[in-house]
Design brief:
- By secondary structure, the protein is mainly alpha-helical.
- It is built from 6 helices and no strands.
- It has a single domain, classed as Ferritin, core subunit, four-helix bundle (Ferritin), CATH 1.20.1260.
- About 75% of the residues lie in helices and about 0% in strands.
- The longest helix is centred in the N-terminal third of the chain and has 29 residues.
Length: about 170
Amino acid sequence: MITKSINALKKAIQLEKDGIDFYLKSAKKTKNIFTKKIFEELAREEENHIKAINRIYEDLKNNSIKIEWVTAESKDNIEKVFQDALVEKAIKSKDDLEALNLALDFENKSIKYYERLAKNSKDNFERRFYFTLSYEERGHYLKIMDSIQYISDPTGWYYVKERSMVDGG
């Protein structure tokens, strides 16, 4: 049981490393400061996932799992990127949109992987951990969708986010 968990965690670490690599390369390639900030923030969040996975990996490896609450990370950082974007003009770039769509696919695969691990886990702590990672990756997915919408249609994005009302009177 523990060997299976350790192998799953090793694969999860590699998945997160692949995410960091993709996000940092994408951040370096983009000329759009908004997209660059999104990719850099996603890379930082993936680094936090690796730290959490490593803690649990070491505990499992040493047979000293510590029961603690696993909680979701703060959304403040990514929301700040959108606030900072108020002063930036979003530049619609086919390459940026393509990279963001690839990121969507990557996050979707991560979500499915962590959900499968959670579903197959017999240990409550481990199950909660994987569901939390799945939740985090779902948050990344939504952030990327938000970014695509912002870059594609900034006016529409502000309209939806600000919950603007059109008075028919």
